[in-house]
Amino acid sequence: xxxxxxxxxxxxxxxxxxxxxxxxxxxxxxxxxxxxxxxxxxxxxxxxxxxxxxxxxxxxxxxxxxxxxxxxxxxxxxxxxxxxxxxxxxxxxxxxxxxxxxxxxxxxxxxxxxxxxxxxxxxxxxxxxxxxxxxxxxxxxxxxxxxxxxxxxxxxxxxxxxxxxxxxxxxxxxxxxxxxxxxxxxxxxxxxxxxxxxxxxxxxxxxxxxxxxxxxxxxxxxxxxxxxxxxxxxxxxxxxxxxxxxxxxxxxxxxxxxxxxxxxxxxxxxxxxxxxxxxxxxxxxxxxxxxxxxxxxxxxxxxxxxxxxxxxx
Length: 313
Description:
Elements: E1 4-9, H1 17-30, E2 32-40, H2 45-53, H3 59-70, H4 72-80, E3 85-91, H5 94-104, E4 109-113, H6 127-135, E5 140-143, E6 154-157, H7 171-183, E7 190-195, H8 198-205, H9 212-238, E8 245-250, H10 253-263, E9 268-272, H11 286-292, E10 298-302
Helix pairs in contact: 5-6, 7-9, 10-11
């Protein structure tokens, strides 16, 4: 049976030790192979010719050796822990090379530490991270420095379809719950779902004769439908896991979920990201993108199996 492989993109080893040591511990426990990828800027043809004129054609190899030597203590640590660690140094753009390696090695999970900007504590994702969030077909764990490891407070954000009855669980939601359970540690996972009352929005913007009592009843009915659909998803997962703590929150999804994440002091949010129709592979869904701009915890972003990355097309 082939071993599972995880991919770790290392950009700043001085700040990534806690994440790397946790990865090695996790890989050892789960018999997972780990590929560590370092991506350096690609030299233009004219610059490379300049190095050749100076009789330094080995500049790329020397840079490769330098980057590996900076991480030699990690290599030694992985060997001590008997974890199969593969090192790759590539030249190009990090998001492009990472997605290529992830596809070539059929990795199960891609891990990267976020690059926080000084004086902007609430800004989680930088340009490279957004490229990965939008274009990586592989589950992507973006770890925020100083988040507890292992994670102690894991939440999965679920979406449900109340239009289709009887309600049934979806493979995608079950995947989100599986990943949340994988990283939850000793605590039960949390499940959050945001719902809105379309009837209330209708009353606000249209002239209707709906009474306040009718409006309340309709909203209560809508709440119950969301609750029942969510329970179907959780019940399907509870057959092989302890029950999740449920948060059914009302309001605009991005705002409501972000507020719940903050209130519950979540370490890791597991969520699905869906491409907008008409522009497959280029953008994540509006709600997911709005939510990611509002939170400051680590995230595990997952796309449906049908997603096709523009990097690989």
